[in-house]
Amino acid sequence: MDRGVGAAVRPLPESGRKVLAIQALAGTDTVSDLAAQHEVSRKFVYQQAHKASAALDDAFSPAVRDDDVLFELAVTKTWLRQVIVALPLICRSSCRGVVEFLRDLLGLPVSLGQVHDVLQAATRQASVVNDEPDLSGIRVGLHDEIFQGATPVLAGVDARSTYCYLLVAEQHRDADTWGVHLLDAAERGLRPDYTIADAGRGLRAGQQAAWGDTPCHGDVFHIQRQCEGLANTLSRLATGATTRRKVLQAGTSRAGERDPEGKLDVQLEQARHAEAQASCLARDVRTLVQWLRHDILALAGPDLATRRELFDFTVAELMAREPEDPRRIRPVRVALQNQRDNLLAFAGVLDVELAAIARAHAVPEPLVREACMLHRVPTTSTAYWQGWSELRAQMRGKFHILFNAVHRAMASTLRSSSLVENLNSRLRTYFTLRRHLGGSYLDLLRFLLNHRRFLRSRHAERQGKSPRELMTGQGHPHWLTLLGLGPLQPRRA
């Protein structure tokens, strides 16, 4: 039945009006058909469609027009200094970029020298603030020598909080240079339980001279990368030997009777021998490197004594294959042989932690070691859950507490100084500051890295806190305020 405009309208519930409005906007049915289906007038259909369209326009239209004033900000000399410092540090802007920003957006003529003077003043204040914190809370220090061009930069980072307590450019990286800076840090309370560093002689000798018997553990990252490089190089050589053999084999097939003396056959046989030798060497070295990474230097692994035996076996096997390619294998083998105790020092730390867990929970130490080894298995595998169930049955109600304790112990046992490598990558983005401020720019960057709060982190305890707050457990004002450029100006609506 066709209902006209003036026809009586049957009241529709709210849900029915919504459905009607959506159908009208969709346009799949005519207005007349919708009016007939819902027993309403066409005018009513148009009204619901208009309401829905207005609601959509309101939902998707900007809440504030582009020319509306959002808030007011008083431009003072202090605020301008904040902008001059923040643009290079937050946005990685060059000094000329700061000049251009102030000129184009604020219509303010500022010279390059003025920008330089503001940054220099901030750098001097940053140097003062850098020497304030007490470093006695640092338990594990990470040391490394990073490079800005040909200039070595000595770096030291707290493993727990990522607080950078040493970042200075020097002409040398010998024992005396390291020793002087570590003694200065010791006067501020730095006396870690141990440090982690690569095999640098000057670094280690300087620490021994400054801190005596403080252990310096080996960094597994560098040696693993060196071993992986050897394995990859030998694999490429083996691939090249295979390619040469295939080329000779194809040439021998085409030569036919044109090689009566069989010279190509001799060359092909030699190529086959070289291919077999190169492939075997590459395969053996790759296997040894994988053992080293997955079984010996892995965090979840056997006790220290067993790791030493496996380590010595790996070195012996490399030495046995050294005559086949001494130029490439010998440096890696010597590095492993000389660094064994330093590289495996983390295993001794883990052994002590696991033994303490076993005593605290009155559980046999082999079961605690099994809980540690279970961390090697992916949690998505059947083997993991089978081992998980077996351990749970053996521990009689203590499994979850003990397993969590083992997990915490492993998380606190460090094997590499990768945080320093990360620091190096962050410094490289500030090359313009290095050019304008010289070596003192490192003081300003160290200040920024230590006092800028983490916006996000994989570690929940770090979010919203700065490295200094994490290290000292005490709050501090915004970093611009610490530089004498604050307080920050609140915006006015």
What's the layout of helices and strands?
Blueprint: H1 14-26, H2 31-38, H3 42-60, H4 77-90, H5 95-106, H6 112-130, E1 140-148, E2 151-158, E3 164-169, H7 175-187, E4 194-197, H8 201-211, E5 216-218, H9 220-255, H10 263-296, H11 304-321, H12 326-343, H13 345-360, H14 365-373, H15 382-395, H16 399-411, H17 418-427, H18 431-437, H19 441-451, H20 467-472, H21 479-482
Parallel strand pairs: 1-4, 4-5
Antiparallel strand pairs: 1-2, 2-3
Walk across the major sheet and give the strand order.
3-2-1-4-5
Shape: extended
Kindly report the average pLDDT value.
87
Number of helical regions? 21
What's the number of extended β-strand segments? Answer: 5
Protein name: Transposase
Explain how this protein is built.
- There is one protein chain.
- With 493 residues, the chain is of the alpha/beta class.
- Among the domains are: 14-60; 220-343; 349-411, no CATH class.
- Helices cover 62% and strands 6% of the residues.
- The protein contains 21 helices and five strands.
- It has helices at 14-26, 31-38, 42-60, 77-90, 95-106, 112-130, 175-187, 201-211, 220-255, 263-296, 304-321, 326-343, 345-360, 365-373, 382-395, 399-411, 418-427, 431-437, 441-451, 467-472, 479-482, and strands at residues 140-148, 151-158, 164-169, 194-197, 216-218.
- It has a five-stranded mixed beta sheet with strand order 3-2-1-4-5, sandwiched between helices.
- Helix 1 packs across helix 3 and helix 13 packs across helix 14.
- It is extended and about 95 Å long.
- The model is unreliable at 1-9 (pLDDT under 50).
- It comes from Paracraurococcus lichenis.
- This is Transposase.
